[in-house]
Design a protein that fits this description.
The protein is built from 12 helices and no strands. The chain is mostly helical.
């Protein structure tokens, strides 16, 4: 039984590592996978697990983008551009952070449902296709992290609020927001990755606080296995996405979301 649960944790870590960065909704996929292949653990643990496992994915961003995120340069001097980048990241995290803290319990109780996830998968899939078609051939004006102003950062942060609804995708909402605000795909994706760091550390701390930091030994094993797997898979997923969007748009992810949303509706209503 324990070995089977470890295999489930590995599979969930793979799902998290892939879907956290691709704009297809990690929370939505995790909830749906749990419907089909449930961890044989308490509901309280699973509620915490599905959030804290994302820390493994977030650490992949820290490792891959350490030079852009660490505020000391090679001469051990403070890099003003990095400090300013962190200022924009923090500002962008405020809107979703406030709403998330205030409504976390309500959102989990009322919106973590298969049909809500399906609806959001389809709606944002359609939006990706429409936005990419509208922007085809256009030159977006923001092509570096330094060009993102505090105003644009707040705007992206407001779009991040939408991701509190499961099935939306945090990366999907913020990338769409960035593109609509004139940010190029690659820069919108990078800024989205960076936003995840304080957001997920904060969300994980809240979940751990509610859980009580009191793990049974096997629960801790399951959590660590999931996090390590998510970390390793995330490194590959991030590299794939950044390479992919240099030559392609996001429409393929839009079509995937629509197809998955329809399958979810059929599965849970028939």
């Amino acid at each position: 039984m324990n070995f089977i649960e470890i295999l489930k944790a590995i599979f969930l870590g793979i799902v998290e590592g892939i879907t956290e960065w691709l704009p297809i909704s990690s929370t939505g996929h995790m909830i749906l996978v749990d419907e089909l292949m449930q961890l044989n653990l308490s509901d309280q643990f699973k509620s915490m697990f599905f959030v804290v496992i994302q820390l493994g994915a977030i650490l992949a961003v820290v490792v891959l983008y350490w030079k852009k995120l660490f505020p000391l340069n090679s001469s051990k001097k403070i890099d003003r551009n990095t400090i300013e980048l962190w200022g924009k990241i923090i500002v962008a995290c405020v809107p979703a952070g406030v709403i998330g803290i205030l409504f976390d319990d309500y959102l989990e109780a009322h919106l973590h449902k298969p049909l809500v996830i399906a609806a959001m998968l389809i709606i944002y899939g359609v939006l990706f296709i429409i936005i990419e078609n509208r922007n085809k051939g256009k030159r977006l004006r923001i092509n570096s992290l330094k060009d993102i102003s505090y105003k644009i950062a707040i705007g992206i942060g407001i779009f991040q609020i939408l991701s509190l609804i499961p099935g939306t995708s945090r990366s999907g909402a913020t990338i769409i927001g960035g593109i609509l605000l004139g940010v190029s795909r690659t820069i919108a994706a990078e800024f989205t990755f960076f936003l995840a760091i304080p957001v997920m550390f904060g969300a994980s701390f809240i979940k751990l606080l509610k859980f009580g930091f009191s793990f049974q030994a096997f629960e801790l094993v399951i959590l660590l296995v999931g996090m390590v797997t998510a970390f390793l898979v995330s490194i590959l997923a991030i590299k794939f996405l950044m390479g992919y969007i240099k030559k392609h748009d996001f429409k393929v992810f839009g079509w995937y979301r629509i197809a998955l949303g329809i399958l979810v509706i059929l599965f849970f209503t028939l």
